[in-house]
Amino acid sequence: MNAALPGTAIRVERPTKTLRELALDKVRDAIVDGYFKPGDRLVERDLCAQLGVSRTIVREVLRHLESEGLVATLPNKGPIVARLDLKEAKQIYEIRAALEGMAARLCAEQRDPAIAEALEASLKAIRESYAAKDMHGVLSHTSAFYQTLFTRVDRHVAWGVVNLLTVRINHLRSMTIKTRKRDVEGPAQMEKIVEAIRKGDGEAAYKAAHDHVTNASAIAEAVLSAQQTAE
């Protein structure tokens, strides 16, 4: 007679995400990573086949992505990948510069070596992701860098504001991180933020964070302007 199996040996674990959430992640990543490009039609039937999910789920996913600003619905054409708007992008970078500069200054004023160490760990992961041509990793570790910047000084409300814009920020970031020399210049600018925080220099930390965002904004503006000209 076979020995009884432990009570949890064959338990079916519940998935951490629903099918809808998994489909949402897949389509969002496909847009942010450039698989679906601005202006591309998002045909429900095709997405059902590609994702292996029902039309109901696809419609829910498209509605959610429209609320995030990644999808637009045009009359007589249906859902398309939203085109990044230059004026809107400028406003997003203005918000980032103000909030990230503030957070960097506060981190420096904390004079806590653990903050700089945590930021350096994320920065190291960003460089490794660039070296491996892992752009998704670059985005993920960059988000972790900024989460540390805000949460280590208990600025959760500010981080919440940034999080509301995260999808659009990453959509813009996915363009700027692929531009020439960004794999070197971006981390170098972020290193200045870390160095200023490590030294406890609030003004230098604010300036480094502000300059980094301003530089990214200029790159995004150039890319978006070139796209509009090509169209």
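Second entry:
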Amino acid sequence: MTGSLLASGREADVYALDSTRVLRRYRRDADVTGEAAAMRYLAGRGYPVPVVHEAAGRDMVMERLDGPTMLQAALAGDLSPTDGAEQLAGLLRRLHELPPWPDAPDGTRILHLDLHADNVLLTARGPVVIDWCNVRAGDADLDTALSALIMAQVSLWDHPARALARTFLDAFLTVAPGDPRRMLDEAVALRRRQTATLTADEIGELDTAAELVRR
């Protein structure tokens, strides 16, 4: 029994199990054990992620978190774009300062590869980063480039956060760690391959979004 549906993303649904736990279930075939291992590794080094209780197949039982997403708080007027951009940049910086797991290639850092305002929950214990399905080791600037590119994409969509995303992007680019433009072509190529989660129109807008980041 999965309990009541709490949220749905592009790839997974989240169900309430009780007052302290949720079930995150992918709608596609998946093996969450690698994602769970990465989250436990990060938690052990003080990075803010949900506690993972169980993980098998396409199901992960995690800590139930309180609070809105960063995007919800910004849309409600409870978080300014400047403050949100600084928090997001700080979370990226903290992540990239952590040592990667022992078998990671030399010179790489831990990457989230989908760190944006809707993947940060503002909880009683502070911001917590969710949705680690893309986590891997790599070049830190790719992670920052993807965050900027996603903001630029949202600013082009018919979306309630369209205007906010552009303001957020401008603020983020002034405080972002590393150089978000250095790996921008690689970020665009990575997004182009995400045909399971992006529509054809969204993929078609990637070059325009990249130009917003470059400018």
